[in-house]
Amino acid sequence: AQGEKQSFKDLWPRAMKARLELLDALEGVSDADAGWSPAPEEWSIKEVALHILKNSRSTRALVQALSAGKPGDTSGIEPPRENTATPIKELQVQLRDDGIEWSAAILALPPTPPLTPTARHSMFGELHARAWYLFQRTHDLDHQGQIQKVKAAAGYPGKHS
After folding, report:
1. Residue 139 within any structural domain of the chain
2. Which are the contacts of 93, defined by CB distance < 8 A and separation ≥ 6?
């Protein structure tokens, strides 16, 4: 399974690279750009950013619990679509700070935590602490792609010809 043979410190560069790419995708996005959606059923950049932030905080708490051998709470792992009045610049700052908190958190975790307990992900099944850590990387990359798709959509206000 993912991450079984590597320590958190070994996994860190991959996870942080994904977060930095996510932050790059948000660079230069105005509030007007961030609140725009290509279609009513599609998420705006702001909605995506808030989703990532809430998910990331919940996933970090889950990784910390599982690493300590405790059962984890997965209830906040898949936050629903939610509009927010928070400016995109503030969401960017919070996502940056959240990435820093992820980095700091691994210093307090055992380098190779036990592979049990695990917690269930709706798509990937039972995951141990390091697999959840890598899941956050995948989640950041997936939603970075979603942000790029919004930015490439016809009618995106931030498009420059």
Report:
1. yes
2. none
Say which residues have a Cβ less than 8 Å from residue 31's Cβ, sequence separation at least 6.
46, 87, 88, 89
**What is the mean predicted confidence (pLDDT) over 63-68?**
96
Q: How far apart are CA 42 and CA 45, in angstroms?
A: 10
* Residue 98: pLDDT over 70: yes
Answer yes or no: is 3 within a domain: no
- Measured CA to CA, the distance from residue 100 to residue 1 in angstroms comes to 26
**Cα separations in angstroms, 110 against 62, 73, 102, 130:** 14, 19, 14, 11
- CA 30 – CA 114 distance, rounded (Å): 43
pLDDT tens digits along 16-33: 999 999 999 999 999 999
> How many Å apart are CA 89 and CA 10, to the nearest integer?
31
Domain assignment of residue 158, yes or no? no
